[in-house]
Write a structure and sequence with these properties.
alpha+beta
C-alpha cells in the first residue's frame, strides 16, 4: 500500500489537477524527489536553494508536523498520508 500525498490547490496545476497522488518513498525527502520526477517543478515550490523545506510550507505525516519529527528525513511506511499545507497570510 503506497503513501498518499495530498496536494494543495495552488500546486494541483503541476499534478494535472490531481488532489491525491501516490509514492512508494521511504522518507519525506524521497517523496519530494519522487514528486519532482513525476511532476517537474514541484520540488522548487517546497524546498529552498539549501535543500530545506521552505518556511511557508508545512508538511504533515499522518497529522504530525514533520518539524516535530525528523523534518525531511521523517520515515514513511505503507499507508501513511502526507499533507502539504502552504501557509496563508493576510490581514
Amino acid at each position: 500500500m503506497p503513501v498518499k500525498v495530498r496536494i494543495p490547490t495552488p500546486l494541483r496545476k503541476l499534478t494535472h489537477d490531481e488532489e491525491v497522488v501516490e509514492t512508494t518513498a521511504e522518507s519525506v525527502s524521497e517523496a519530494i524527489a519522487d514528486l519532482e520526477t513525476c511532476y517537474p517543478g514541484f520540488k522548487e515550490r517546497l524546498v529552498d536553494e539549501a535543500g530545506e523545506i521552505r518556511r511557508f510550507v508545512n508538511i504533515y505525516v499522518n497529522d504530525e508536523d514533520i518539524r516535530f519529527l525528523d523534518n525531511a528525513s521523517t520515515a514513511l511506511k505503507d499507508g501513511d498520508e502526507i499533507s502539504i499545507i502552504p501557509a496563508i497570510a493576510g490581514g
